[in-house]
Amino acid sequence: MGEVRQLGRRIELISIDPHFHDISIGLYERADPAGGASYLAHTYSRVAGTDGRMADLVGAMVTLGGMEPVAGEPGVVRFPCGTGHRTAVKRIFVEAGKLADVASAEGLVPRVEDKKFELAVSVTNEGGGRYRIVAEGENERKAMRIRAIAGGLRRLAELDEVEGAEDQVAFPCGGDHDVLMALLLPRALNVRAAMREQEDALLRGVLAAPSAQAAF
Ligand SMILES: [Zn+2]
User: Fold this and answer.
1) pTM score, two decimals?
2) What protein residues have CB closer than 5 angstroms to ion ligand 1?
3) What is the mean pLDDT of the segment spanning 59-77?
């Protein structure tokens, strides 16, 4: 028999992997009986070395997104909180696909230079899934900029607003996602570009050059 593994629903696609023989890799969502979701990275490629490339990609998702491998299920990852966070996972998958190997996926900190506004932007974990955006530096439009970044984070990961706190966002699960926040923060400074990049990757089957990651 051929491949009979239940893939689930495909939610994202790397049509051409620039780091491994231009193979296509899909990301599949699988509903959890307990109510959450897990995600499978899968390719139909039979090129020698594919298993190693897939292990690197999934390892990079774990490192970049704060996800965890699912025991006994190669290629499957989930969040420790068990919640799907589908939009965030798609972003993690695309970012992991830009990296040549798992070793490149180290060293993210939740802090970024906002060059346009001359601010140093970071996030702090306020507990209960809430994160506060902090901006250091002098700029009369600082409060507005913080609100815009909060809006960007909400879009990138389907986060909630926090009533009475425009400088905060909240994960609906109420859990900690420090690692994921470090990945999302630089993208939230220019969320339109981040979304466009994802759409372009799907449409053209071409991923942005890895050097584009540090562009903001
Ligand atoms: Zn969560």
Assistant:
1) 0.87
2) 81, 83, 171, 173, 175
3) 94
